[in-house]
Specification:
mainly alpha; 3 helices; about 75% helix; elongated; transmembrane helix; DUF4214 domain-containing protein; DUF4214; membrane; transmembrane
């Protein structure tokens, strides 16, 4: 029983440690980027996936969400 608890605890601690390291070493994961970067991304998505330029209402909506 103790062995199972230690095994589960060990894996939990490993997951927590990896999470902390990722968030510490790569803080841009949580940062959505500048408004210009997000707008550029959304515009590229519209052009490449939808085959058209974004309308201003849709562009503003998605930039605000991201």
């Amino acid at each position: 029983m103790l062995r199972k608890i230690l095994s589960k605890t060990k894996y939990f601690l490993i997951v927590v440690l990896v999470g902390v390291l990722v968030l510490t070493l790569f803080p841009t994961i949580l940062d959505g980027g500048s408004a210009e970067q997000v707008q550029s991304f959304v515009t590229r998505f519209y052009v490449q996936c939808l085959g058209r330029q974004p309308d201003s209402e849709g562009l503003n909506e998605w930039v605000g969400r991201l």
